[in-house]
Amino acid sequence: MYPFGKGLKRYVPFLFLLVPLVLYIIFYFGPSMMTVIYSFTDIKNVPGSELKFVGLQNYYDVFFSGNSGERVDSIIRTLYFMVIVTIVQNGLALLVAVIINQKLKGDYFYRAVFFLPVVLGVAVVALVWSMMFDPLSGPVNYLYNALFGYKDMFFGSFTHAFGYIIFVQIWMYMGYSMLIFLAGLQSVPKDLYEAGYIDGTSKWQSFKNITFPLIAPSFTVNMLLSIIGAMSTFDIILATTDGRFNTRTMAYDVYKETFRGSLEMGLPSALSVVQFLIILVFVVIAVKQMRKREVEY
Amino acid sequence: MKDSKSTKILSYAVVAILLILYIIPLLFVFNVSFKSFTDYLLDPMGIVSNIQWSNYKDAWVQGNFSNYFLNSLLYTGVATVLTLIVSLFGAFPVARGYVKWSGFIYMFFLLSQFLPNPMVAQFKLMLAMKQELGFVGYDTKLGYILLKTSGTGIVFMMFTGYIKSISRELDEAAGMDGCGYNRYLFQIIMPLMKPVIATGVILTAIGIWNDFVGPVMYLPSPGNYPITFGLKEFRGQYGNNWPMLACGIMIVSTPLIILYTFIQKYIVDGALAGAVKA
After folding, report:
1. ipTM score of complex
2. Average confidence (pLDDT) over B3-24
3. Is B116 helix (H, G, I), strand (E, B) or coil?
4. Which CATH architecture describes the domain A67-296?
5. A89, containing H or E segment
6. Which residues of A touch B92 (CB under 8 A)?
7. In chain B, what are the domains?
């Protein structure tokens, strides 16, 4: 029953709801659907130009046109980025969460420090690491030289730049994944461990058989966030190498071709759709795998 | 369960290594920001001996940071407030089922997290708006604020969850006393939602303040730059003058760090609430 009046007043909530609904449709849902439609057309970034449907031509061009070698490289690089970031970031975050959760002294301080990069933002983080990784005067090169007698070009290296970007990405978001794991760990009932202790389980056994199944939901959340995040972010690339030195990913390509490339908008649209399909496949696989491990208690 | 001594030591060792990895870069930046350029080139890593306070003044003036700060404050302030209000407009009727197809609308809003990348058509839309209307769209402050105002994100989901925990009988009692819908929403429901509003404000504000890609795409004129884009431009201007750039980093991040130490607890709780709901 609606308690706030009858007749026309019944429609007030809907009127209010229209505000977020309209904003969402205009700025996100609409453009998202239009991008899918554009991917089948020869639309150009010229006001008032005619557009006609070209079928799958743009998709063909993504993979088989003159300069598609670069684009396919970007796709492979994106997958590589996603797999490494997802595994290393979540593995490290889980380790740190388990460590912090055993009531170390100063645990609040540690988690605050590990979350700090998210608060500082990508512009600051990218500049801080550009400074650390400066080939001439940066401390990391100094360290490399002292330890291995070796110097690196870091973000200016054709072979290593992407690896360093992966490092910075993980450095930045490890704390976020850690927080989610901590929330999961804190919801595990303590008496289960006590029961396990009486039955003589080892630390590893109690982690594998008690902790891990019970924090599976936070694992699912972390996997989804990392997969979607790693497939769609490019701000770290924009802020460090700006796509030079073999560091372009799919999301970066979409941006580059839309904002700084040719007038053709069909191709970046098709690329967006390919990106979406890849995300979909991985998300479905991840959710299916994780669901299997979740338990009721 | 007791922990053995060796695992405790190992745990502290791991944490110590990570702390070094997280704190050293910031200390390095802090140290360099006080050096003169020649001192830096001679000895990049040594502790600063001759403190150059003027670096900060120069960076502030030449980086045009006061302007960028004001822009960032404007975008973050307005878009955060709007996001919260708009999310409440959506979350309350959906949580209560006061509109038809509430379940469908909830799913439709949730879909916003999984849509195909809207960038291409969004860019065309912003250009078209600028051309047709002028005051909104590409390279306008209002256009960017509207783009950042969203009633369908994590805040919407957090609000929906929280409102469900507020008793329905309150609605009925208020309605019985003749309280109108908007008055109820703003004077009764909103004050009850203080904790979740606090986390919503913080999460939204961090996201907008630190947005890097949005301004690069949609705010190309210097008069519209927020602080993130300003820092990028500052870098373009100063190339490898790291003491200057270090000042830029400190200018941008010091307010954030100070604020963070005060509201750290809310951020952590909020990030958790947001993540688990999503």
Report:
1. 0.86
2. 86
3. coil
4. Orthogonal Bundle (1.10)
5. helix A68-101
6. 13, 16
7. 1-51 (no CATH), 59-277 (1.10.3720.10)
